[in-house]
Design a protein that fits this description.
CATH topology of chain A: ABC transporter involved in vitamin B12 uptake, BtuC
Subcellular location (chain C): Cell membrane
Pfam family, one (chain C): BPD_transp_2
Protein name (chain C): ABC transporter permease
Distance between the termini of chain A: 22 Å
Structural class of chain B: alpha/beta
Chains: A mainly alpha, B alpha/beta, C mainly alpha
Distance between the termini of chain B: 52 Å
CATH class of chain A: Mainly Alpha
Helix content of chain B: 25-40%
Strand order of the largest sheet of chain A: 1-4
Number of strands of chain B: 22
Shape of chain A: globular
Helix content of chain A: over 70%
Radius of gyration of chain A: 21 Å
CATH topology of the largest domain in chain B: Rossmann fold
InterPro entries (chain C): ABC_transp_permease
Keywords (chain C): Cell membrane, Membrane, Transmembrane, Transmembrane helix
CATH architecture of chain A: Orthogonal Bundle
Strand order of the largest sheet of chain B: 6-9-10-3-11-12
CATH architecture of the largest domain in chain B: 3-Layer(aba) Sandwich
Strand content of chain A: under 5%
Order of helices and strands of chain A: HHHHHHHEHEEHHHHEHHH
Mean pLDDT of chain A: 86
Number of domains of chain A: 1
Largest interface: A-C, 51 and 53 residues
Oligomer: heterotrimer
Chain lengths: 340, 512, 366
């Protein structure tokens, strides 16, 4: 009875058609991205099957080569779901590589001590940004921009030169392989998948996760519903800082050096992965699983271009941009349908 | 009957904003098992009092006692924990989440920190069921119209403390204009629920602009004026006339005067003709003719299609059938610009979101429509602009009479006048006013109604939408009656047209 | 409060804080470089720290001025850095293909091509934002990501160097004793101010940014206006791109204009234009851009290692933003005049209410 209430701008009384319902499903973008990944992979298979593209390891390498991006993108997913944005991701990663390399190589600290320190610094940086965003009502864009400058600057303060890591514990960790059906994964890839699973659990099975969605849906409402909206926002940025630092550690492991210019602009890749993964940049809608596919698609573009051989590296950027554009347009048509 | 102890007592509440004293020493009591109306004109301090009570604002003076203990809330969640729940006028829920989640968010049933989704959905469905509502709790909230979302908000606040015993259970339920978006059936449903909760000992603070509703459901009322307490009365001890006088602090004759004005303007030749204009999901195709100098009032329940009709005639929404001719010329109505060029003006019912640019000054807001019509390359010369603005500020008595004031700072009535000035300055042939008197004080209301009469006498056609039938009757030459998104009748106003007659037309949907 | 009304009126002027920061930054230099403010004439050219601040800040001012209008409509343009790179790359690659690189007609044509590409980028952004209704930050992200790839594609991943005297003028030449780029900047700023304040464009832009739906219902063709500001912004970025590549006589698809969008947005914010749209101030933006450039210069002159430049920039961003945050001011200076913690409904700020109440008082007197 109440559902038949007349209300201005209410949807028409007739139940939405099947097609409309499919289009309005929030899971659709994730499926589209997954489908795109499969299509691209199939194209790769048919084009480069003589070059070993079909090997399991080529597929697993996607996880190995993009583990740091996945972790960073998971952090960015939290921020974007909450309706914010974090531009400091790349800088925090760069800083973490420098910080780690410097502590391990120049100060001779053991890795077990350095890892928690690096994570703590990243999380604290995120906390500070969240605190300023929340308590002084400054746009996240600007605050995290300051974070971008600050952490990149701190990199340079540590050293202008890159520091390569010769520590044996680092290299043994970097070279460790975990065999997975016909191939292997690196420790970094395993860690990134664990982070992904944890993020999925947090977003869907904890109150905190649901608050992130609520804030992204309507922050004002979340506040008036009595949700601890401020704390949630700060926690989201803290988490993003933590993820960035963890991504930085994985990157260090991957590259085995610290460099003040490492991961410049990586925040764009992370944001692109999140968007391609179907999360609305306006917040409140999306899945962390989509982010995985977003990262895989970006990674696959790189591999495809490498396999092609004749294409230059800048085609990666162009292809990413084109994909980003396509997904943004898809999102747009979907949200406009949902509103009418 | 011996009075029980109040569940909530606020004494000497003071709240100041820079330059404004919103509340000066207000006392307020709320007893368990009563429905208590909080009344006052715009700016009386109702919302501020509620926001102080719920911890949105901190108070600058006075005490709040809940169940005999002094409390001070610093956030809405603290108030909610203590058993004070609020349902605001605007639906404050998250449209991207499901109905069930909206009901339980913040107090989801968990085990070892893991949300128990099945239990959550089941409990939500039970709660919705118990309240006699037919809502699919798994659907996203955004798939429901606003009125249903409002009911979900009430379900949510009623359900506080249900899950795993957190919170103290709702002792005080604040309903801040919950009925403004509900139709009569839903209002009755809500009232039944309110009475049931009252029976369970919940104290309900009810804010509504509809006096009839207050007399229908409330036990006691507190009246505020200009941030001060005017009085607390049992509803049965004070009649409506007495109440209105308390609220406005003066008699009603300003409104009565208008009775003499009605109807004697001569209606001129045809101005606008709509043939089979309609829009799916908005309003069924209708025919309508508006003549010069004519006031057409639209009567109908909320959601009957009044606003939708007006929006089509302005091109705010695009009609998907029919055609509109204005002054003999076909107008495509593909955008507001088409209608504006043909001499139509439209004051939306949503002043804040669809009318004003709050950041801009009164002057800039007033000249906006004229400037938009001239295009950006032809600015209005400063001298001419200032003269025009000054003229309309004076004519409409906009206060403060300062063209440099930011429009966001003005009171509701003055904001409405700024919008009127914006359109009058373009000298439209047809002025569409969608609930121009909603949420503004009675003085400004009378001024706006007088203005409509005089505009019509000068030959301007007016399409007038108001929630109150009396208001429509008083002003209109012709009354269009809407029901279920159809224009069902057009009645020429006359002595035989009474509110009862219109209600009958709305109820039967037929033109007798 | 003990402050006099005049002082309060001054501190509440929208340019007060930006100018104050600029002045403080300039003064910091004096102990380190006593002749900081002196300007010398050498070879018919004026030299001095102030001149070089404006000279090196020119591209940023240009980009920031365009960005101001975009931000005022409630948008943002992240693609300006990529547009700078594309314009420089196209222009330089065209000039380098010429037999006679000094031929004025060839240089003008090259610049025309470069600017046309910038306009196309602007149209694309405007199309996505105004026609497709995509959030600006997302819409412009596309060219931000893909644009550098395109620029590298044009230069084939190389740095293209040119050797053209006429082209050198725009970014590195002198005219009437001053760097030519200062004139370019002055012209663009003057045109922008005239365009926005002599016509009704400024009002309409502020209206669109302040309340888009109300603007539509009042008959403002906001799509047209939005497309216009994105094109204008891209054009400004294009001119900046010419300036940067002319100054170095080279086009670097990878690094030209890198992060300039962030600096530009920063300049706009320092200048007092809200990222939420609405009211804007071109003057404030110019001051904001000068603040950023002065900061860089100051770091050089006071002898702090240049690598800390970014840390200082971060500090300035934070300080300026905190100063502009009403909440921060209330907490630090206001002595708790604002109660609202968590503030769902933001209390009117003193800056907002002051003009109204003062005006009312005045009227009561008269």
């Amino acid at each position: 009875m109440t559902t038949t209430t007349q209300q201005p701008k209410a949807p028409a009384g007739s139940p939405p058609s099947r097609a409309a319902r499919v289009l309005a499903d929030r899971r659709l973008p994730v499926l589209v991205t997954a489908g795109l990944f499969l299509v691209m992979y199939a194209i790769g298979l048919s084009r480069y099957q003589n070059y070993g593209f079909a090997e399991t390891q080529v597929f697993l390498n996607l996880f190995i080569d993009n583990s740091y991006l996945l972790v960073a993108a998971v952090g960015a997913t939290f921020v974007i779901l909450s309706g914010g944005i974090d531009l400091s991701v790349g800088s925090v990663i760069g800083f973490t590589t420098m910080f780690t390399a410097w502590l391990v190589e120049r100060q001779g600290l053991p890795l077990v001590l350095v890892i928690p320190m690096a994570l703590a610094v990243g999380a604290f940086g995120g906390y500070l940004m969240g605190y300023v965003i929340q308590n002084f009502e400054i746009q996240p864009f600007i605050v995290t921009l300051a974070g971008l400058f600050l952490f990149r600057g701190l990199c340079l303060v540590i050293s202008k030169e890159s520091i390569s890591i010769g520590d044996s514990s680092v290299s043994s960790m970097a070279q460790a392989q975990v065999s997975v059906g016909g191939g292997f994964l690196s420790i970094g890839a395993i860690v990134s998948l664990v982070v992904l699973a944890a993020a999925f659990y947090v977003l869907h099975y904890t109150r905190f996760g649901r608050r992130v969605y609520a804030i992204g849906g309507n922050e004002q409402s979340a506040l008036l519903m009595g949700l601890p909206q401020g704390g949630t926002k700060i926690a989201v940025y803290t988490m993003s800082g933590f993820c960035s630092a963890l991504a930085g550690l994985l990157f260090t492991l991957y590259i085995q050096s610290g460099d003040p210019l490492h991961a410049t602009g990586l925040e764009l890749d992370a944001i692109a992965a999140v968007v391609i993964g179907g999360t609305l940049l306006t917040g409140g809608s999306g899945y962390v699983v989509g982010t995985l596919f977003g990262v895989l698609v970006l990674g696959l573009i790189k591999s495809l271009i490498q396999f092609e051989g004749t294409l230059s590296s800048w085609w990666t950027k162009i292809a990413t941009g084109v994909l980003l554009c396509a997904f943004i347009l898809i999102q747009r048509t979907m949200t406009s349908r949902r509103k009418t | 009957m011996a009075e029980p102890l109040p569940v909530l007592e606020m004494t000497g509440i003071v709240k100041e904003f820079p330059g404004v004293r919103a509340l000066s020493g207000v006392d307020f009591r709320l007893f368990p098992g009563e429905i208590h109306a909080l009344l006052g004109e715009n700016g009386a301090g109702k919302s501020t009092l509620i926001k102080v009570l719920t911890g949105v604002y901190s108070l600058d003076g006075g005490t709040v006692t809940l169940n005999g203990t002094s409390v001070r809330f610093h956030s809405p969640s603290q108030a909610q924990q203590a058993g004070i729940s609020t349902v605001y006028q605007e639906v404050n829920l998250c449209p991207n989440l499901s109905v069930a989640e909206n009901i339980f968010i913040g107090r989801e049933p968990t085990r070892f920190g893991r949300i128990q989704w099945k239990r959550l959905r089941r409990e939500a469905a039970e709660l919705v069921d118990r309240l006699g509502l037919d809502i699919d709790v798994e659907a996203p909230l955004s798939s429901y119209p606003l009125a249903v979302q409002q009911l979900v908000a009430i379900v949510r606040s009623v359900g506080t403390g249900d899950a795993d015993g957190q919170g103290a259970g709702t002792k005080v339920l604040i309903l801040d204009e919950p009925t403004s978006s509900l139709d009569r059936d839903e209002v009755l449903e809500l009232f039944a629920l309110m009475r049931r909760l009252r029976g369970e000992g919940v104290a309900i603070l009810f804010v509504s602009h509809f006096l009839d509703q207050i007399y229908e459901v409330c036990d006691r009322m507190t009246v505020l004026r200009n941030g001060a307490l005017v009085g607390e009365h049992m509803v049965r001890d004070l009649d409506q006339v007495g109440l209105v006088q308390l609220m406005i602090g003066k008699a009603l004759d300003q409104l009565e005067e208008l009775h003499d004005h009605q109807l004697h303007a001569d209606v001129g030749e045809s101005l606008l003709k709509a043939d089979g204009v309609g829009r799916a999901g908005g309003i069924a195709p209708f025919d309508l003719e508006i003549k010069k100098g004519e006031v057409i009032g639209l009567a109908g329940l909320l959601g009957s299609g009044r606003t939708e009709l007006a929006r089509l005639l302005f091109g705010a929404d695009q009609p998907d059938s029919g055609k509109v001719t204005i002054g003999g010329k076909h107008v495509s109505m593909s955008a507001p610009n088409d209608a504006i060029a043909a001499g139509v003006a439209f004051c939306s019912e949503n002043r804040k979101t669809e009318g004003l640019v709050p950041d801009l000054t009164v002057r800039e807001n007033i000249i906006l429509a004229l400037q938009a019509a001239r295009g950006w390359t032809r600015p209005i010369p400063a001298a001419q602009r200032d003269e025009l603005v000054a003229k309309y500020i004076k004519a409409l008595d906009i206060r403060p009479a300062n063209p440099e004031a930011r429009v966001g700072q003005l009171s509701g009535g003055n904001q409405q006048k700024v919008l009127l000035a914006r359109w009058l300055i373009t000298q439209p042939k047809l002025l569409i006013l969608d609930e121009p008197t909603r949420g503004i004080d009675i003085g400004a209301k009378a001024e706006i109604q007088k203005l409509v009469v005089s505009l019509s006498e000068e030959g301007m056609a007016v399409l007038y939408i108001a929630a109150e039938l009396e208001e429509v009757l008083r002003l209109s030459h012709t009354i269009g009656v809407l029901r279920d998104r159809k224009l069902v009748a057009q009645l020429a106003n006359g002595p035989e047209i009474t509110p009862t007659r219109i209600l009958e037309t709305i109820a039967s949907g037929e033109h007798q | 409060m003990t402050t006099t009304p005049r002082w309060r009126a001054l501190t509440r002027h929208h340019l007060f804080w930006p100018v104050a920061v600029l002045v403080v930054l300039l003064l910091v230099n004096v102990p380190f470089t006593p002749d900081f403010f002196s300007i010398k004439m050498t070879d018919g050219h004026l030299y001095g720290s102030l001149v070089s601040i404006v000279l090196f800040g020119s591209p940023l001012i240009l980009v920031a001025v365009g960005m101001t209008l975009v931000i005022a409509t409630g948008g943002i343009d992240l693609s300006v850095g990529a547009v700078v790179a594309i314009t420089g790359a196209l222009t330089c690659s065209y000039i380098s293909d010429q037999a006679d690189q000094d031929a004025l007609s060839g240089v003008l044509l090259a610049m025309g091509i470069g600017l046309a590409a910038a306009v196309v980028c602007g149209l694309w952004n405007g199309f996505l934002v105004a026609r497709m209704g995509i959030q600006p930050i997302i819409a412009t992200l596309i060219i931000m990501v893909a644009g550098r790839g395109v620029a590298q594609l044009i230069t084939d991943g190389q740095i293209i160097t040119v050797n053209s005297e006429p082209y050198k003028l725009i970014g590195g030449g002198y005219w009437l004793t001053l760097p030519f780029s200062i004139f370019v900047v002055a012209a663009v700023v003057a045109v922008t101010v005239a365009l926005t304040r002599r016509t009704a464009l400024g009002l309409l832009v502020e209206s669109v940014g302040g309340n888009a739906e109300a603007s539509r219902l009042v008959g403002i063709r906001s799509r047209r206006i939005k497309i216009m500001v994105y094109v204008f912004c891209a054009l400004c970025a294009g001119i900046a791109g010419l300036m940067i590549s002319s100054n170095t006589s080279a086009a670097d698809g990878n690094n030209a204009g890198l992060w300039i969008e962030l600096d530009a947005i920063l300049a706009v914010v320092i200048g007092g234009t809200s990222l939420l749209g609405g009211r804007f101030s071109i003057g404030g933006t110019v001051v904001g851009a000068l603040v950023i450039q002065t900061l860089t210069t100051t770091i050089y002159t006071i002898g702090v290692p240049t690598q800390t430049n970014l840390v200082f920039k971060a500090a300035v961003v934070i300080i300026v933003c905190l100063m502009q945050s009403p909440k921060f001011r209330a907490k630090v200076f206001g002595g708790g005049r604002f109660g609202g913690k968590g503030g769902a409904q933001q209390a009117p700020t003193p800056a907002d209410t002051a003009p109204t109440s003062e005006a009312v008082r005045k009227m009561e007197v008269s």
